[in-house]
Design brief:
Order of helices and strands: HEHEHHHHEHEHHEH
Helix content: 40-55%
Strand content: 5-15%
Radius of gyration: 17 Å
Number of strands: 5
Strand order of the largest sheet: 2-3-1-4-5
Oligomer: single chain
Structural class: alpha/beta
CATH superfamily: P-loop containing nucleotide triphosphate hydrolases
Shape: globular
CATH architecture: 3-Layer(aba) Sandwich
Distance between the termini: 31 Å
Bound molecules: 2'-deoxycytidine-5'-monophosphate
CATH topology: Rossmann fold
Number of helices: 10
Length: about 250
């Protein structure tokens, strides 16, 4: 988890992972669950809402593997960018989906140009289809998984046991992104960051295929007024409540 100047954990991104160091907790969770249990937790929400931080914390808490599905779109965008390919060309973008290997901690995956390209190429239906099976296979693994993205609860894992839709006001998200950028030594203008967040929201919610939207059975978690520890505690509480009710 990233730390910013005020030493409070910031909402920030990190790769998909299997947290082997926490295998003890996972084993306990596995013992507590019935053998047929398959706990899939879908976490969706807009950019900088805190969904990635929350998803990772849920994965640790419940002893589950986690996938940040945004990284797949970012990896395609980065590959295309490095090739000098045209993000306006769907066919070229689709070629970049082949043999998609990437280093999750490559800092360029989270750079601004790659973020913009990822947001625009994620509207291509063929690109979404090419990345679908990888995400669904991850969600289907025995024991379950936590996935975060934009369409997990609606398209990738519509039968997920628990769905969270994590959001926050655009202004709060812009402030978080500013802190993240500053912590990485990349100062930016608040108005530009807010403008970028708003246009990404529009692109992610306005596309024809798998737009960002709250699934009907998803629980809304607004983190605008919460710090990271409060947001995580609330997410855990909501998931436990949903499991207990099932
Ligand atoms: O979550 P993120 O900001 O890292 O995602 C990068 C882009 O990928 C985002 O603009 C939208 C797209 N994306 C998507 O369309 N569907 C997903 N499940 C995850 C991300």
């Amino acid at each position: 988890m990233t730390f910013v100047a005020d030493q409070r954990p910031a909402f920030g991104g990190a790769p998909c992972h299997r947290d082997m160091a926490l295998s003890k907790r996972r084993n306990k969770m596995a013992r507590d669950r019935a053998p047929t249990d398959n706990l899939v937790i879908a976490v969706d929400g807009p950019a900088a809402s805190g969904k990635g931080t929350i998803a990772r914390a849920l994965a640790r808490h419940f002893g589950l593997p986690h996938m940040d599905t945004g990284l797949l779109y970012r990896a395609v965008a980065l590959k295309l960018w490095r090739w000098g390919g045209d993000p306006g060309n769907e066919f070229e973008t689709l070629r970049a989906c082949n043999d998609l290997g990437f280093a999750p901690d490559d800092p360029e995956l989270r750079s601004e140009p790659v973020s913009k390209i990822a947001s625009s190429i994620s509207a291509y239906p063929t690109v979404r289809a090419a990345l679908l099976e990888r995400q669904q296979a991850f969600a289907r693994q025995p024991g379950g998984a936590v996935l975060d993205g934009r369409d997990i609860g609606t398209v990738i894992a519509p039968d997920a046991a628990v769905k969270l839709f994590v959001t926050a006001s655009a202004e709060v998200r812009a402030q978080r992104r500013m802190r993240e950028l500053m912590a990485r030594g990349m100062p930016a203008h608040y108005d530009d960051v807010l403008g970028d967040i708003r246009s990404r929201d529009e692109r992610d919610s306005g596309r024809a295929v798998a737009p960002l939207r709250q699934a009907e059975d998803a629980i809304l978690l607004d983190t605008s007024e919460l710090d990271v520890d409060q947001a995580i505690a609330e997410a855990i509480r909501l998931v436990e409540e949903r499991i207990a009710a099932a």
